Every structure is written in structure tokens, then in C-alpha cells.
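sry for the spam today, last one i promise. C-alpha cells for design, 446 residues
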């Protein structure tokens, strides 16, 4: 009995190592699943979460519960569950919503965390899987543009958008979520090499990525890409010339789209101009107004998970918003109904009221804070890419999918978890320990 007790710590360490290896395999397979098998992606996320929670329970390791992000995510989740229970609908889906924040914490605190060689190799492998996903989307988008169909025989969408490797116009939202994590490390490394050839290669890579996004022809991803390029240029002065060249090439292509891709021009310029000129009457404007009226119905407790879809057809919410100058006769009726409000923050307001909105905003802020810490002093390329990827994904002024839907939610929290694993680890006395992906550091080659 005494010998069994003595061997227990070693047994727990061995089982924990096996669980960590299994979670890493699931993490490595997650990008491919997010691209082409959403149900599998949900299974992989569930496996990582269960292994992480089991590991934490067996090893009695609870330090991850004390981070600002974990606390904010936990409070938001508990409030969402309470609101869903009180509304009488959506409680099970609200309970399952915590799976994505747990994924990010599991990757950042366990699966990919650590400064030893094996953990650095894990981070390299996950980064490579993300970068490969970005390259696959870009390659299939160009194939579809040049040949008319992608590898699976799918043509571009009826509105002119390129679908990339998908049969629906999903290439833009997926590409923007991996754009910065995949692009910045190789670009920054090439720009740091001596000689003009590697630097020209870095600029060319950035230009090619920007041109790909423009040709895909989806408005919000293109706008978010330009926003992210501007934010990166403000943060890292030495990248400004290359990023300006890439952005300029994108704008030049946009100006040339009437000749090189008329469908892209009609989508990016024609439809955008029309919708901005008549936003309140546009499809997005009608959904925006309806999301506000649904939230105003129960401003403190919300409608519970998926509240917008369940309430948007009620006569009591089919009215305008006086403080926005939208009269009742322009509220859109049933035309304003959709499966979600197309904005994370409006979704949080509808689901859990003003307290839920505040908690959700706090969670997103505390998600980006560790990634942003010290970037101006030491712009580690992988962490910078993850920070920008999460920033554009969680930017409040944007049209989005539902927050916990696949694959968008999976991409956001996968990138966030990778960013957490790269964030400075704090010693007890508060001194940071930098953790980086060696293969993608922006230093001169040795």
C-alpha cells in the first residue's frame, strides 16, 4: 500500500503527459477540421477541453482560474446561463458556450505552454497548421479565379465572391481569421534578413496575401484586413513601408477590378456604396435595428441564448429606434429576421442584456491584453500575428457570424490559445519570461 502511494505522483505525471500528447494531436488536427469538417471540429474541441479539465483535477492545478480572461469568461458564461434559464429557452446551448474560452485557456496554459524544446516544437507545429490553412484558402481562391472552379469543381458564388476551397462564400471570413497569424511571422523574418532579395520577398508575400483578400471579394473581411494592416503599422514602425506597399497594391487592384474582375467590383464597390447610402433600409441595417429592439425588450436579463432568432418575429419588436432616427414604418417587419444579429456585441446584448454585454466586452478586452503586453518593446512576430488576428475578429464595428458557431468561433479561440501560449509568462515577482516560436522570430539568421 505504501509503495502504491509512493508511485502515485509518478503515475499522475505519466498520465498527464499522455493526456497532453492526446490534446496536442487534437489541436494539430483542429485547423483541418475547421476548414472541412465542423462536426469533427466540435469533437476535437470537446476532447481538448475534457482532457484539460481532467488534467487540472488530477494534478490539482487551478492557477488558470485566476487569470483576468478566465474570470471574465466565467462570469459572462454564468450570467448567460442564468438569463437563459430565466427566459426558459437555450439553457443547454448556453452551458456549452464555455467550451470555446476553455479551449483557449487549455492551449495557452497547458497544451502549448512552456519554454522547453518540446513545447516550442508544438507551437511551431500548430502555427504551421494554421499557416497551411491560410495557404490552402489562398491557393484555391486563385485557382477558382484563374480557371473558373476550385479543386472540387465549385464555381464562384452568384454575387461574384470567390469561395476558395468551399462551396459557399466562406473563404473571406476564414481567411481573415488566419491572415495575420499566418502572414506576419514569415514576412517579418524575411524583412529582418540582410540584403534586398529577402526583403523584397517579404514585401511580395504581403502583397500577394492582400491581393488574395481583395480578389475573394467579400466586404467585411477586406475592410478588417485594411484595419489590421493599419493597426500593425501603428504598432510596429519598421513594418510601415512594407504594409503600405501591400495596402497600396490592394487599393490599386480594387481600382482595377472593373476590368480584371467585374464581379468583385460589383460586390466590393457597387453593393457597398448602395448599402452605405441607404444603410437603414439595407439588410444589415434592418437586422441592426431589430437587434436593438429585441434587446430593449428585456434590457437587464436579455432573451437567453439565441434570443434574437427566437424573438425577432414578435410584433412587440417590429418598430423603429427613435434615438437612431428610424421610424416604425422602416423597421422591416419579417425581413429584419435572421438566425443571429450579425454582430458579437449585439448578440451578447440580446442574449444577456446590458450586464451580459459589459461582461462580454470585458472578456474580449482581457483576451487581448496578454497578447498586447510589451509588443512595442519586443514585437515577437507570432504573438503580434495572434494579437492582430484576435483584434480584427473581435472588433465591435463589424458584421460577423454567431459568436459560438463553427468554424468562426473555433478559429478565434484557436488563435487566441496560441497567442496565450506565446504571451510573457509571469514569475512570482512579476518579471516576464518571454516565450516565442523560434522558427519565426524576427531576428537575423544565425
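last one done:
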Amino acid at each position: 500500500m505504501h509503495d502504491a502511494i509512493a508511485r502515485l505522483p509518478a503515475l499522475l505525471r505519466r498520465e498527464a503527459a499522455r493526456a497532453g500528447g492526446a490534446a496536442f494531436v487534437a489541436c494539430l488536427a483542429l485547423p483541418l477540421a475547421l476548414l472541412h469538417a465542423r462536426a469533427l471540429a466540435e469533437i476535437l474541441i470537446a476532447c481538448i477541453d475534457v482532457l484539460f479539465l481532467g488534467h487540472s483535477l488530477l494534478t490539482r492545478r487551478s492557477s488558470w482560474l485566476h487569470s483576468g480572461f478566465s474570470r471574465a469568461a466565467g462570469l459572462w458564461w454564468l450570467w448567460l446561463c442564468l438569463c437563459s434559464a430565466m427566459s426558459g429557452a437555450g439553457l443547454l446551448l448556453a452551458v456549452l458556450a464555455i467550451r470555446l474560452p476553455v479551449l483557449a485557456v487549455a492551449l495557452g496554459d497547458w497544451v502549448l505552454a512552456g519554454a522547453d524544446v518540446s513545447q516550442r516544437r508544438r507551437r511551431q507545429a500548430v502555427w504551421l497548421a494554421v499557416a497551411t490553412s491560410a495557404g490552402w484558402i489562398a491557393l484555391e481562391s486563385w485557382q477558382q479565379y484563374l480557371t473558373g472552379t476550385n479543386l472540387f469543381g465549385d464555381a464562384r458564388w452568384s454575387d461574384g465572391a470567390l469561395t476558395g476551397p468551399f462551396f459557399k462564400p466562406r473563404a473571406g471570413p476564414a481567411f481573415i481569421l488566419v491572415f495575420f497569424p499566418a502572414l506576419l511571422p514569415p514576412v517579418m523574418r524575411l524583412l529582418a534578413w540582410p540584403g534586398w532579395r529577402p526583403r523584397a520577398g517579404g514585401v511580395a508575400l504581403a502583397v500577394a496575401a492582400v491581393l488574395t483578400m481583395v480578389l475573394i471579394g467579400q466586404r467585411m473581411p477586406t475592410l478588417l484586413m485594411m484595419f489590421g494592416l493599419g493597426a500593425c503599422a501603428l504598432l510596429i514602425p519598421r513594418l510601415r513601408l512594407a504594409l503600405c506597399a501591400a495596402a497600396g497594391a490592394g487599393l490599386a487592384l480594387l481600382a482595377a477590378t472593373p476590368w480584371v474582375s467585374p464581379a468583385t467590383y460589383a460586390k466590393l464597390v457597387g453593393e457597398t456604396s448602395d448599402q452605405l447610402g441607404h444603410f437603414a433600409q439595407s439588410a444589415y441595417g434592418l437586422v441592426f435595428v431589430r437587434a436593438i429592439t429585441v434587446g430593449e425588450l428585456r434590457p437587464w436579463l436579455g432573451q437567453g441564448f439565441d434570443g434574437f432568432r427566437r424573438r425577432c418575429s414578435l410584433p412587440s419588436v417590429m418598430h423603429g429606434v427613435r434615438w437612431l432616427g428610424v421610424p416604425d414604418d422602416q423597421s422591416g417587419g419579417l425581413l429584419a429576421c435572421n438566425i443571429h444579429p450579425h454582430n458579437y456585441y449585439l448578440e451578447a446584448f440580446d442574449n444577456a442584456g446590458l450586464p451580459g454585454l459589459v461582461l462580454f466586452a470585458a472578456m474580449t478586452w482581457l483576451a487581448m491584453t496578454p497578447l498586447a503586453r510589451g509588443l512595442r518593446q519586443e514585437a515577437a512576430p507570432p504573438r503580434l500575428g495572434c494579437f492582430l488576428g484576435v483584434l480584427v475578429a473581435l472588433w465591435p464595428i463589424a458584421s460577423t457570424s454567431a459568436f459560438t458557431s463553427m468554424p468562426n468561433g473555433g478559429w478565434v479561440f484557436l488563435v487566441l490559445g496560441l497567442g496565450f501560449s506565446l504571451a510573457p509568462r509571469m514569475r512570482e515577482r512579476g518579471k516576464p519570461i518571454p516565450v516565442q516560436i523560434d522558427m519565426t522570430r524576427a531576428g537575423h539568421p544565425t
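The chain has 16 helices and two strands. ok im logging off now
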